[in-house]
Amino acid sequence: MKMRLRSSTWWRVRRRIGDLAHDCRGVAAIEFAMIVPIMLVLFFGTVELSSAIAIKRKLTLTARAASDLTSQSLDSVKSTDMQNVFAASGAILLPYSLTPLTATVSEIFIDKDKIAKIQWSQSASVAMVGGSPQATLKPSPHKPKDTVTVPEGLLIANTWLIWSEVSYTYTPTVGYVLKTGLPMDDETYTRPRQSTCVDYPPPANSSNSCKPVS
Question: Which helix (H) or strand (E) holds 23?
Fold first, then answer.
C-alpha cells in the first residue's frame, strides 16, 4: 500500500515538473521586468544627456553675448549697463532655469611684452525675478593687474580684449541617470568694436582714457 502511494506521488510530481517545463504563462511578464530597467536607463539617459548638451550650447552663446555686448559699447560702461548685459545674456538660457548662472566680464590689456593683465572685472549672478532675468552684481574673482593666460593668437602688444566667463551647474529634472549636478563653464574673447578700449566705470572727465592700470 505504501509502495503504491509512493509511486503515485512520484508520478504526480514528475508530471507536474513536466507540465511546468512546458508552461509558458508569465514569460512575457518576466521578460518585461528584466527589460524595463534597461529601457528606463536608455530613455532617461537620452533625455538628460540631450538637455545637458542643449544647456552647454546655450552657455556658449551666453558667454559670446556678454562679451559681444560689452565690446560694442562706445567707450565706457556703467554699473547699470553691466547689469543689463548680464541679464540680456542670461536670457539666452531660457526656458531652462537661470539659477545658478554666474558670469564675469573683464577687460584685459596686453602690454608691449605681450603679458596679459586685468584692466577691470565685474561679476554677477543671474536669476529670474518677477518673470524676467535680473542680474545682481558681485565682486569679481579677478583683480586689476592680475596676470591671466590668453590664447596665443590674441596676444597683440598694446591692445585690449573683452573677456567673458560663465559658469553653470546643470541639475537633471528627473535625476534617474545623472544623480548629481553637472558643472559647466565657457569663455569668449572679443575686441572693443567702437573704441580702443572700454572703461569701467566711466572716467571722471567723461572721456575714454585707455590707460593701462599701473
Answer: none
